[in-house]
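Email to the structure team, subject: NADH dehydrogenase [ubiquinone] iron-sulfur protein 4, mitochondrial model.

Hi all, the expression group asked for a predicted structure before they design truncation constructs. Nothing fancy, just the tokens so they can compare against earlier work. One-line instruction: predict NADH dehydrogenase [ubiquinone] iron-sulfur protein 4, mitochondrial, return tokens.
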Amino acid sequence: MLGIRSYVSPLRSMARGLATVDKSVPVTRLHDAKRKSLEEVLQPTPAKTNVTVVGEYDEVMDIAGVPEEHMEPRTARIFKPAREATQSGWNNTKAWKIELDNRERWENPLMGWASTGDPLSNISMNMDFASKEDAINFCVKNRWSYEVDEPHERHIKPKAYGSNFSWKARTRVSTK
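Reply from the structure team: attached below.
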């Protein structure tokens, strides 16, 4: 009768051979494992100390890669965008945006396009902030002066459907 051998992949047999040949690599097998107590696993944590960070904003701007002429004298306008003029809802009016002051532009003589050397000219297209404070912190971190335009909140006057049919002389509409 022929013996049936199970197939062992060459990669697995090589890994098994390497693990048993090298004695410098510690191997813990299941029967060698020692059960630890809860006190050994949950060691006391060291006391936490406060770390003071000095000049964190300076370091952020130094590694940002923005040329120096575009760093300091920037003025940002922080605002909530107005609703679109079309018949759209209030969807994109919740976030705060930043718009930087415009730098010099010139007309490209070859194509006639407007060119600029300002790497931050399109920042207002992509940057949205959840709150006004987040936008202010971003401006402080980048050493920009800022102006905040407070949003004009809409006031909804509560109305009842029955007021359309009330019998007041001012609100009555003739149907003839």
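The chain has a mean pLDDT of 76. Helices lie at 10-21, 38-41, 56-62, 123-126, 132-141. Ping us if the truncation boundaries need rechecking.
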